Amino acid sequence: MRDQEPAPLAERRLSTKEAAELLGVKPETVYAYVSRGQLSSRRATGGRGSTFDAQEVEALARRNRRESAGGSGSGGELSVRTRITLIENDRYFFRGVDAVDLATRHTYEEVAEWLWTGRMLRGRTFTAPAASVAVARRAVEALPEHAAPTDRLRVATIAAATADPLRFDLSEEAVLGTARTLIPTLVDALPPAGHHRRDEGPLAHRLWSRLSVRKDPDEASLRALDAALALLVDHDLAASTLAVRVAASARAHAYAAVSAGLGVIEGPLHGAASGLAHRLLWDVLEQGDAAPVIASELRAGRRIPGLGHRLYPGEDPRARALFALLEQIPRAEPALLAARDIVETTARHAPLHANVDLALAVLTASSGMDPTAGETIFAVARTAGWIAHALEEYGERPLRMRPSGLYAGPKPPQPLPE
Questions:
Q1: Which of 96, 268, 345, 349 is in the most buried spot, having the most CB atoms within 10 Å?
Q2: Is 398 in contact with 20 (CB distance < 8 Å)?
Q3: What are the start-end ranges of the H helices in 232-332?
Q4: How far is the C-alpha of 68 from the C-alpha of 293, rounded, in Å?
């Protein structure tokens, strides 16, 4: 007697286990595809478990394979499906909601939770475990005095990872727990800027004591810092975020994924750009005129920092929102006028708008902060976005972000070298 022929693909229903094997993902990821509308499911006979259309699963598997090969059909640029941030028409959105509205009406912690879960948890605050802070703080204190902000944050991240025996648990609940403790750990591990250090309260208040020599900030200044954190929390697939997703695709734990982002953010074209804008701003403040400062920069062959953005043909919405908040701080007026002078002087030859780096420079320069403070703000803020992207990537097929190299070397086989 012959074995029974399997049902044609068009008629077959797959179990959750079979669908997961075909897609190369965990069973829980199959249900994530259902919740996103990428797969449909039907209750199995008897009401236990779900079944899936075999053709639909195979089509999704083919689509995932195409993405993992790095092809986007758009001139060779890598394209990654995401539900986190959309940038279009000089605006940007977090899970479909205007990001500027979120940042100016909610705290950084609330915006981070929205980014991670799609739920608005009002009054959310982050607390770091004492043991984690102690380990991270000792590691940071062992660094030389001249260590850069990202050096401190990277070391603090690695130290915090060693204190977390559950770091290899990549479930959503565990990763969210890591996010809610890692971010305050990074802040609390930083040395104070003056003789005061605040270890309780909202994250922006604690971060202020690590960045500014001014002990008692006014409410408007704290609101501007908190809004800056929320505005910078994510910005689609920036270079550092792509590095995080590559690490998460290889199933690196959340601390390692964040460390990958910190390794990229240090570049002058990314997280360190606000420091360059800060120094330019101080030069203009000292000379009282942007013209000679701009001329000097151009003569040296350097681009003017804090101006223009490849994703915004018009005004950077983050800069616009932050400038509006800074206008409510009287002592920020000189720096705001200097920033305006920079934009107007440069506009005579290149009509570029101010970007968020220049707005961040106004905040740091008018708040008694070091030129590297903007880099710290950027990195702390973006850590929440990196966690959101890592979480999203953990739900995808492992190692899908593995492009193929286009070999351009000598044609093999070549003779052995002498």
A1: 345
A2: no
A3: 239-249, 254-265, 273-287, 290-299, 317-326
A4: 47
Three-state SS for 173? Answer: helix
User: Distance (Å, rounded) from C-alpha 254 to C-alpha 232?
Assistant: 19
Q: Are 353 and 363 in contact (CB under 8 A)?
A: no
Q: Which residues contact 143 (CB under 8 A, 6 or more apart)?
A: 151, 152, 155
Q: pLDDT by residue (tens digit) across 138-150? A: 999 999 989 988 9
pLDDT digits (tens, 9 = 90+) for 20-66: 888 888 888 888 788 767 788 888 776 677 888 888 888 888 777 66
Question: How far apart (Å, rounded) are the C-alpha atoms in residues 130 and 123?
Answer: 22
What is the distance in angstroms between the CA of the first residue and the CA of the last residue of the chain?
Answer: 67
d(C-alpha 122, C-alpha 113), whole Å: 9
Q: Element (H or E) spanning 13, and its range?
A: strand 13-15
**Angle 273-287/356-365 helices, nearest 10 degrees?**
60
3-state class of 28 per DSSP?
helix
- Choose among 390, 385, 386, 326: nearest CA to 359: 326
Ranges assigned E (strand) in 26-108: 41-43, 50-53, 85-88, 91-94, 97-98
**Widest Cα–Cα separation across the chain:** 96
Q: Does residue 271 carry a pLDDT above 70? A: no
